[in-house]
Amino acid sequence: FNAGIGSVFTRDETHELDACVMDGITLKAGAVAGVSRLRNPVLAARLVMEASPHVLLMGEGAETFAFEHGMESVSPDLFSTEVRYQQLLDARTAGKTQLDHAAPLDERHKMGTVGAVAMDLTGNLAAATSTGGMTNKLPGRVGDSPLPGAGCYANNASVAVSCTGTGEVFMRTLAAYDISALMEYSQLSLQEACERVVMEKLPALGGS
Ligand code: GLY
């Protein structure tokens, strides 16, 4: 999958991982962006939520914060795989920044961004998203995944959402929050809200 080991490569053959977690009871969220030395960025995101006054930490600051709280430092090349490197070469040849599940991976077995949503026995919701981003992205590029409301959102009043796709468009449409808002303010069902966002609003801006 495109998170942790198996993350895609940036243009410069590095890995920059993003992750977010959100709690639908409290609307608390935590996220990290552009980290390359944390094995499980989503655990660091949770740490930001639970042990800092902030929502999003980036790069070295995020890593230092995680190390200070006992997380292990790993070598960035831990995340590299041959398949992902081949994807980078292909994306370079095509001159494109590509989705993590673009060719040559099997269309029927897409190994993209990792998302999870959960509901407990009493109906509390939570969401988490973790990704290496898009193949051949510029170093420093941050996608939708670590941004609450864009690639990750949970609210007990509506829905828990984790997104995968062309991050820039999910950021511009606040896709995860938009699904929640359509349910909360327009009383759309979950399916109707997802269809509006995924089949209409994202494609209208070139998103997938
Ligand atoms: N949706 C993942 C990314 O664009 O980084």
Reconstruct the topology from this structure.
Layout: E1 17-23, E2 29-35, H1 41-51, E3 56-58, H2 59-68, H3 82-94, E4 114-119, E5 125-131, E6 152-154, E7 160-162, H4 167-173, H5 175-186, H6 190-204
Parallel strand pairs: 2-3
Antiparallel strand pairs: 1-2, 1-5, 4-5, 6-7
Helix pairs in contact: 5-6
Bound molecules: glycine.
Describe this structure in a few short sentences.
This protein is of the alpha+beta class. 33% of the residues lie in helices and 17% in strands.
Structural description of this entry:
The chain has 208 residues and is of the alpha+beta class. The protein is 33% helix and 17% strand. The chain contains six helices and seven strands, in the order ββαβααββββααα. The protein has helices at residues 41-51, 59-68, 82-94, 167-173, 175-186, 190-204; strands at 17-23, 29-35, 56-58, 114-119, 125-131, 152-154, 160-162. A five-stranded mixed sheet has the order 3-2-1-5-4. A two-stranded antiparallel sheet has the order 6-7. A hairpin with a 5-residue loop joins β4 (114-119) and β5 (125-131). α5 packs across α6. The longest helix has 15 residues, at 190-204. It binds glycine. Residues 113, 131, 133-134, 143-145, 151, 164-165, 167 line the site of glycine.
